[in-house]
Amino acid sequence: MNTDLRNFLQQNHSQLTWKERIQITANIMKSLFRIHTENVIHRDLHSGNILYSQLSQKFLISDLGFCGPVNKPSNSVYGNLPYIAPEVIAGSQTTFASDIYSIAMLMWEILSGQPPFMNYKHDYYLYQWYETKNCVRNSFRI
Known about the structure:
The protein has five helices and five strands. By secondary structure, it is mainly alpha-helical. The strands form two sheets. It has a three-stranded antiparallel β-sheet with strand order 1-3-4. Strands 2-5 form a two-stranded antiparallel ribbon.
């Protein structure tokens, strides 16, 4: 693999068309779909774990170290804070939906060219912000 998504975007974002940005997103979503069809949760999706191959011209999900079966919950929270679903930070188990939350954060990065919450330190204060939003989010849970 030649680079990760974060570095690729830093070098190429201003030249990417909307069609290319959508294609990048589709490649990542297809990779996650393949992981989920094996009944596995990734648990650590972020732009450093999305690799680009110039040879195949595709983006693929890497770092499957925290992956695990859906029916075998993890006792810990892993990952890069801005990409972790608020309910997981608040103590809920990781699910397919928490991987989808990470995809949404990747979509933000692909479309804007900026990592999520880049103006915040990835520390206790960002965690507190998540907790506040989680209270609102849970009231609308379907």
